[in-house]
Structure formats: structure tokens, C-alpha cells
TrEMBL record:
Species the sequence originates in: Nocardioides luteus
Subcellular localization, as worded in the UniProt entry: Cell membrane
Name of the molecule in the record: Signal transduction histidine-protein kinase/phosphatase MprB
Biased composition (Low complexity): 356-369
CDD domains named in the record: HAMP, HATPase, HisKA
Entry's transmembrane regions: 40-65, 398-415, 421-438, 445-463, 469-499, 533-557, 569-591, 612-636, 656-675, 687-709, 729-748, 755-775
Residue intervals of the Histidine kinase domain: 119-330
InterPro entries, A to Z: 2C_sensor_his_kinase, DUF4153, HAMP_dom, HATPase_C_sf, HATPase_dom, His_kinase_dom, HisK_dim/P_dom, HisK_dim/P_sf
Domain HAMP intervals: 59-111
Length: 871
């Protein structure tokens, strides 16, 4: 049962839903703020929990509507066996029940239609076959005696009666059978009906028992048709020399007619079906009936506002007994009747007569609900994401859910109150293992390479202490992991894979629901919850008892279990939910990646060569002018620079470095555009493309070299920093991409649509980042600053104090008076989950994080003011 199932108003449900979601969001946000949780963690967790509460409370509110949409589509294709859950008491539940009733009625109508067509075809075929045989004999000159003609005439009459009965049914069902009432004497009418039936030559005798003075208002033709059909049905099912009795009587403001025979009778279980067209008592070909007489009798009764039913035989008698109960005066406006009774009509018992209660017809059963017939109901998220990210019924994977739970618990236990180290790597590898398991069906060299790079980049957290390189490595590890699990190919596809990761938390909600249903639907939901709860209780209770009873075991527990204090408990809960959500979203992204690498439309090359060659030529000329200016500055010397620009050489090289980096990146765009628009059908076209882009690439590489040389000169003048090292590597990586772009262009592939260039950029960037981590950037920076101090006597002590523990071995080479200014004794109290190679090598020493002002206030700290660093 859903939480809001008993609420009887959809408006009240929506109000409660909004109120509960807002209350939960407010409480969670307040707890996060009090616990000091970062907004980057608390906001996503608050939104996720509020959405979870909304999903829980909204379960069952709109699902019947979506299921009705799917069911109506199936009904449009002729499948009326569908049903939707309608357990609520609100408007949606009422609509669901009405929908199920409608589906049941339509199913019954459809079955009756098929039965009618089949039975009419059968009834027509029998006399037609007999009539055809007689006519064939007549054509062949055989059997032209009166007996043969009489046989043909009898079959023709049978066809005529069948057609007339069908026309009567059609008129009654269409409501085009109005009554033409008048005063009718029941006794004479019964005698006329018996005479008509006796003319058929049935070997039975008839008895009439009706008051001579009984006069009613009725349609004489329709009433005669009713009685004749009942008598004909009784005579055909009576034995030879049997007796058929028809009698009538008045019951207050109503009167009744009964027809009794001496045949085998009708079982009580079949009495509700005999009034259907071609029902169970419909006459067969041997008995000569059409199978429609009792159906017509019922509808004539309905037209007069009465009821008809088969009753038990009279005491001491046998055979069938049918009773018609009619009003003395029919309703002013007769009831509209139908070929097939509706669901409501089948539930209404026939009106019992005043003298003797009639047995009501048993209700026709509605179409049974089919379990799971609308399990794959569409989701509103399908309309949001459309064809970009279809959810083609990805099966639930409870193993991935449990893996995300384990990764979330590890994150909540190992992340808060710990520096990056071994515990960080454990959480990253656990999360990556879940994503790899989700994308295991994607094979090939690229996923394997990405997973290896992911592991190497994650390991940086246990090797280096510098927060900036650890953060960049973790971001890069996530990028290669997502690209490998989604098989992203192009540059745009790799970017979209990263953007799709947070969106997967929303897109994967239906999959998460299927995952939970896959457990609860098999009856394991309660068992799993019960087992988990009992296992946790056993672990906590007995673990605490034995840990407090044995000091050795207690020390082991202290090594593995974090110190969960009340002030950190909320933070750990937030971190657990945060990591769990991220891992589960990445797992769904790997399991069902979006269409991030759609085939690009074929770009039509330009008609004339100059349309692409002229713009590229202009860029080549601008590059050439820049290179000429560079050469002039180099050969002219610093005096020439001061005369023309007023800048020193150091200021000159620093001024243009950023512009050169941007120009290198834009060169990639120029190569991409030229490769897409340049025609390559002829040898001449391909030659021009290679020459133009070759010149541009060569000039771009010279610019890259110039930028790197400028940065080298700037570092020699102003010192070395991590940022300048990172920019050096980034500029070199751009130069490598320019070469790759040129190769891709001359090979006939557009740079953004190639099958390898995007992956090459990703892999080469990850390898470059690993290279930076491998050289130990903080130690490299410290070493070069120490060397610069030894050569020039210049040093930036404030900057060196901000380096991580990775730089301690290099900074220990400074003279004692300077070393004391950048290094202070610091006792590390890290546990084994915080172990880090950089901090371990620091040997108990750490860079001083104390500000220069504090040092000046300390009379024992004597540090020279030799900072020459200018950023």
C-alpha cells in the first residue's frame, strides 16, 4: 500500500506531497548547515532526499494514468484483457476502476461480436449447403420431384427466418424498435401463438392456461414474437409426444407468462447464458433453430420493461421452465437495449414477480485482470530526455545497487576528518569497480586503457600530498572512467559524457525503481531488509562487547573503524548519501549511456577553393607577422625592446603568454573548419589542403615553442610555481593536439568527427597529468627555487611556506636560517588509512602554514625579507 493511498482527494494528496517534501528539505538542509557540511555536498544530498520522499509519497498517484495510456493503446489494437491497478480512493483510483469496467465491457462486446459472426456464418452455411445440393441436382436434371423442391423451400424458409431474426436483433440493439402498444387480450394471443407453432409440425402437444379476462397494454406483434420464440424453443427441446404448457396470470400491477416443457431442463449454471445470441441452448442444425430466439425474447421483454429468467421446475415436474414478468402498462419511454448487456446490467437482478420470485440471471463475469500487463508503463522522463537518452527497459541490477551502497558507506567512513591518502584510493577504486561492472559489456582496448588510467590517476592520492595535483588527478580519473564506460569517441562525446553524469541521477530513477521491484517482486524485499538489519545489529552489539572486553581486539577495531562522534555523524551521513548517489548515477550511465556520439551530418564542401583557402591564408599571414616580430625582438635585444615598447625583456615575455596559449587553441578550430569545408576530390585540392594546413601547423608549433621559451625566461626572472609548470605542460599538450589535428585533417577526417582524435586528446591529457604527478611538482618547484637562490640569492619564502609535504626533502637543502623560516616541526598523527608517500617522506616535518605576521611577532624567528616573486 502506498503512503497516501487512503487519502480520498488528489488535491489533498498534492498538498501533503508538497508539504512533506519542503519539510524534509528544510530539515536536511538545517542539519547540514549545523554540522558544517560543505554546500557542494549538502545541496545535492538535500535535493536527492527531497526527491526520494516525493517519489515515495507520489507512488501510485500518477502511475494508473500512465498505465491507462499504455492500456488504451493496447485496447486500440484489439487487446481488451488489460487492467490497471485501482486501489486508491481518490479521483485517480475511481477513474482506474471505471477504466477496468470499461475494458471488461468492451472485452465482452468484442467476444460477443466474434461469437456472433462465427455462429451466424455457421447457421447460414448449413441451409445454404443443403439448398445448393438441391439446386445442383435440379441443374443436372436429377431429383426434380416435389419432395426435392419442398426440401429446397424449407431451407429457404430457414434462411429467411434467420435473416429476419438478425434484422430484429439489429433494430433492437440500435434502439430502432419502438413499441406500438394497444390493448391485448392475453388468452386469444396465446391461442394464436400456439396455432402458429403447431403449424411447424412439432410432435408435441400444447396446453394453454390463462384467464379469459386478462387484458394488458403491449405491442401485439412483439409480444406474439416473444411467446412464439419461447414455444418454439420448448417444442424443439421436448421429447416426442411431450407436452408444452403456456400459462399466464395477473400479479397486482404486473402479469406473468410461463412456458414449461418436458425436456431435459437447463442446469442452474447455464441459465445466465441461454439468452445470449447463439447461447448454450441455441438450436443446432439438427433441431432446426437459429439460436437467436431466446435472445430476441429477452430484448422484447426489456422493451416492455419486464424481466425474463429460467426457474426451477415445479414440484414433481421436470423440464425447463421460463417465466416472463411484465407490467400491465409498458413504460412511456421504453428502455434502450443492446446486443450485449453492459457490466452494470449484468450486475442487476431481474425484477421478481409478485406471486413467485424469479431466479435472477447470474452476472456475466468481467474480463480478469492480467498480472503485469502494464508493467512497462512509460515515464515522464522519457518526454524530458527524448531520443537523446532513451530508457529501453534496462533491467534492474541489484548487485550494482549494493555496490553503490558499499562505496557510499566507505566514503562516509573514510572521507570525513581524514587527509587524502590510502583511504581515498580505496573509495575511488571501489566506486570505479562498480562502474566497470556496469559497463562490462563494452569491450575493446579503449575501455581497458581507460580503466588502467583511472587506477593510476586514483593512486596519485596515495603518492602525492599536493592538493592541487590530487584534485586534478581525481577529476581526470573520473573523466577517463566515464569515457571508457560509455565508449565516448569524439571530443563532444567526451564532454557530453561528463555532463550526463549528474543528469543520470534523474534519468536513472525508473531503473532504480525496477531494481527495487526486481527484489520485492520476487518476495525477497522483506527478506533482504530483515537480513541486513539483523546482520548490522549482530555486528554492532557483539562487536562492541568483544572490542571492549579485549584490549588487543579494541586496538584493531580502532585502526579500522573511524571515531564516530556526534558532531561528525551528520557529516558522515551526508558524505555517504553523496558518494552513493554519484556512484549509482555513474553506474546507470555505464549501463545505459546516452547517444553522445550521434553521426554528424555530412558537411557540404565549399564550391570554390578560395572560400576556405583565403581565410586560412589570412591566419597563416598573421602567424608569419608574429613570428617576424618575435625574431626582431630576439635579435634586436633588450635595448630595442625598451626603445619600441618601453618594456623589459622579462615584462615583454610575460605580457603575451596568455594570448599565445589562446592562439594555439584557436588553431585547432581553424584546422577543424578547413578540413570540413575544403573539397578533396581532386589531387590538386588535397595538395592545397596539405600545404595550407601544413604551414599553419608549423607556425603554430613555432608559437608553442615561443610560448614555452617565454615561460622559461619568466620563471628564471621571477621564480618557479606549480601553476607555471602546469601551464607549460598544457601548452605542450595543445601543440601535440595541433599535430594530431593536422594528421586527422590530411587523412580525410574532420577533427571533431574522427574516430580517434577525441580519445587521443583524452588519453594524452591523462598521461600528461600522470607525468606531472610523477615528477613530484611541488618538489620540482621547490628544487628549482632552491637552485635559483643558490645562483642569484633571490627566494620567495612566503610562497615556499605554502608548498605541500612533497617539497620538504627539497626545502631541507636550504641554509639553516632559511629552512627554519619555511619548515616547522609538526607531529603527524595520521592513521594507516591516511598514509601518503609525500607525508611519509617528510619525516615528521611539514611546511609552515603560519602567516608572515605571526612569524614577525615571534622574537625567535629571524627570517630575511628576500621575496622577489611577482605574479
Amino acid at each position: 500500500m502506498t503512503p497516501l493511498e487512503r487519502v480520498s482527494s488528489i488535491k489533498v494528496k498534492l498538498g501533503l506531497l508538497v508539504a512533506a517534501s519542503a519539510l524534509v528539505a528544510a530539515v536536511v538542509a538545517s542539519v547540514g548547515r549545523v554540522a558544517g557540511v560543505s554546500p557542494w555536498i549538502s545541496i545535492p544530498v538535500t535535493i536527492a532526499i527531497a526527491l526520494a520522499v516525493t517519489q515515495l509519497l507520489a507512488a501510485g498517484m500518477t502511475s494508473p494514468l500512465r498505465q491507462m495510456t499504455l492500456a488504451s493503446r493496447r485496447m486500440a489494437r484489439g487487446d481488451y484483457s488489460v487492467s490497471v491497478p485501482a486501489v486508491g480512493s481518490d479521483e485517480v483510483g475511481q477513474l482506474g476502476r471505471a477504466f477496468n469496467t470499461m475494458a471488461s465491457d468492451l472485452g465482452a462486446v468484442d467476444r460477443q461480436r466474434r461469437d456472433l459472426v462465427a455462429n451466424v456464418s455457421h447457421e447460414l452455411r448449413t441451409p445454404l449447403a443443403a439448398l445448393t445440393v438441391v439446386l445442383e441436382n435440379l441443374v443436372d436434371g436429377v431429383g426434380s420431384d416435389p419432395a426435392a423442391l419442398q426440401t429446397a423451400f424449407g431451407q429457404a424458409e430457414r434462411l429467411s427466418r434467420l435473416v429476419e431474426d438478425l434484422l430484429d436483433l439489429a433494430r433492437v440493439d440500435a434502439g430502432k424498435a419502438p413499441l406500438s402498444t394497444s390493448s391485448v387480450e392475453v388468452g386469444p394471443l396465446l391461442e394464436a401463438c400456439v396455432a402458429e407453432v403447431r403449424a411447424n409440425g412439432r410432435p408435441v402437444s400444447y396446453e394453454i392456461d390463462a384467464p379469459a379476462d386478462l387484458v394488458v397494454e403491449a405491442d401485439p406483434d412483439r409480444l406474439s414474437q416473444l411467446v412464439v420464440n419461447l414455444l418454439d424453443n420448448a417444442s424443439r427441446h421436448s421429447p416426442r409426444d411431450g407436452v408444452v404448457t403456456v400459462r399466464g396470470g395477473r400479479d397486482g400491477e404486473r402479469y406473468h407468462l410461463e412456458v414449461l416443457d418436458s425436456g431435459p431442463g437447463i442446469p442452474a449454471a447455464d441459465r445466465s447464458r441461454v439468452f445470449e445470441p447463439f447461447g448454450t441452448l441455441g438450436a443446432s442444425a439438427e433441431s432446426g433453430g437459429t439460436g437467436l430466439g431466446l435472445a430476441i425474447a429477452r430484448w422484447v421483454t426489456d422493451l416492455h420493461g419486464g424481466s425474463i429468467a429460467f426457474l426451477d421446475p415445479l414440484p414433481g415436474a421436470s423440464g425447463a421452465r421460463v417465466r416472463v414478468d411484465l407490467p400491465l402498462r409498458p413504460p412511456a419511454r421504453p428502455l434502450t437495449t443492446h446486443l450485449t448487456p453492459t457490466h452494470e446490467e449484468t450486475q442487476m437482478p431481474t425484477t421478481p414477480p409478485a406471486a413467485e420470485p424469479a431466479e435472477p440471471s447470474a452476472p456475466t463475469k468481467a474480463a480478469p485482470a492480467v498480472s503485469g500487463d502494464v508493467a512497462a508503463s512509460p515515464s515522464v522522463l522519457d518526454d524530458i530526455f527524448g531520443t537523446y537518452w532513451p530508457d529501453t527497459g534496462v533491467p534492474g541490477r541489484f548487485g550494482l545497487f549494493l555496490g553503490a551502497v558499499v562505496a557510499g558507506l566507505l566514503g562516509g567512513l573514510l572521507f570525513p576528518d581524514r587527509n587524502a591518502g590510502l583511504g581515498t584510493v580505496i573509495v575511488l577504486l571501489a566506486a570505479g569497480g562498480v562502474v566497470m561492472l556496469a559497463g562490462k559489456e563494452r569491450r575493446g582496448w579503449f575501455p581497458i586503457l581507460c580503466y588502467v588510467l583511472f587506477a593510476l590517476l586514483s593512486a596519485v592520492a596515495v603518492v602525492r600530498d599536493a592538493e592541487w595535483i590530487v584534485a586534478l588527478s581525481i577529476i581526470a580519473s573520473i573523466a577517463v572512467l566515464l569515457s571508457g564506460s560509455t565508449l565516448a569517441k569524439t571530443l563532444l562525446g567526451i564532454v557530453l559524457a561528463g555532463i550526463s553524469w549528474p543528469l543520470a541521477g534523474l534519468r536513472g530513477l525508473p531503473w532504480l525503481g525496477r531494481t527495487m521491484t526486481s527484489v520485492s517482486g520476487k518476495g525477497h524485499g522483506a527478506a533482504v531488509a530483515r537480513t541486513t538489519l539483523l546482520s548490522l545489529l549482530g555486528l554492532i552489539i557483539f562487536g562492541l562487547l568483544f572490542a571492549t572486553a579485549d584490549a588487543v581486539l579494541g586496538s584493531w577495531v580502532d585502526q579500522f573503524v573511524p571515531d564516530i562522534r556526534p558532531d561528525t555523524f551528520a557529516a558522515r551521513i551526508f558524505m555517504t548519501v553523496f558518494v552513493f548517489g554519484l556512484v549509482l548515477a555513474a553506474a546507470y550511465l555505464a549501463l545505459n549511456p546516452p547517444r553522445i556520439d550521434r553521426s554528424e551530418r555530412t558537411t557540404q564542401p565549399v564550391a570554390n577553393r578560395y572560400e576556405w583557402l583565403a581565410p586560412v591564408g589570412v591566419v597563416v599571414a598573421v602567424f608569419a607577422a608574429f613570428l617576424i616580430a618575435q625574431a626582431t625582438a630576439v635579435f634586436g635585444g633588450e635595448d630595442y625592446l625598451r626603445e619600441t615598447t618601453g618594456l623589459t625583456y622579462a615584462e615583454y615575455v610575460h605580457q603575451g603568454f596568455g594570448q599565445l596559449t589562446v592562439a594555439t587553441a584557436l588553431t585547432l578550430l581553424v584546422i577543424w573548419a578547413a578540413a570540413r569545408k575544403a573539397p578533396t576530390k581532386t589531387v590538386s585540392d588535397r595538395l592545397w589542403l596539405r600545404v595550407a594546413l601544413g604551414l599553419l601547423t608549423a607556425e603554430a608549433l613555432v608559437v608553442v615553442g615561443s610560448a614555452l621559451y617565454r615561460m622559461h625566461l619568466y620563471q628564471e626572472a621571477y621564480g618557479f610555481t606549480q601553476l607555471r609548470l602546469l601551464v607549460d605542460v598544457f601548452e605542450g599538450w595543445l601543440g601535440l593536439l595541433v599535430i594530431a589535428g593536422f594528421v586527422s585533417a590530411v587523412a580525410g577526417r574532420a577533427i571533431a568527427g574522427g574516430l580517434w582524435l577525441g580519445r587521443f586528446a583524452l588519453v594524452s591529457g591523462a598521461v600528461a597529468l600522470l607525468g606531472i604527478a610523477a615528477i613530484n611538482p611541488d618538489a620540482w618547484t621547490a628544487q628549482h627555487n632552491v637552485t635559483r637562490y643558490e645562483e642569484t640569492g633571490k627566494i620567495d619564502l612566503d610562497y615556499l611556506r605554502g608548498l605541500s609535504d612533497d617539497a620538504v626533502p627539497a626545502l631541507e637543502k636550504l641554509p639553516e636560517e632559511l629552512r627554519a623560516c619555511v619548515l616547522i616541526p609538526y607531529d603527524h598523527d595520521d592513521d594507516w588509512l591516511e598514509w601518503n608517500l609525500g607525508r611519509h617522506r617528510a619525516g615528521g616535518q611539514s611546511p609552515a602554514y603560519t602567516s608572515s605576521a605571526v612569524m614577525r611577532d615571534d622574537p625567535t624567528a629571524v627570517c630575511p625579507n628576500e621575496s622577489r616573486y611577482v605574479d
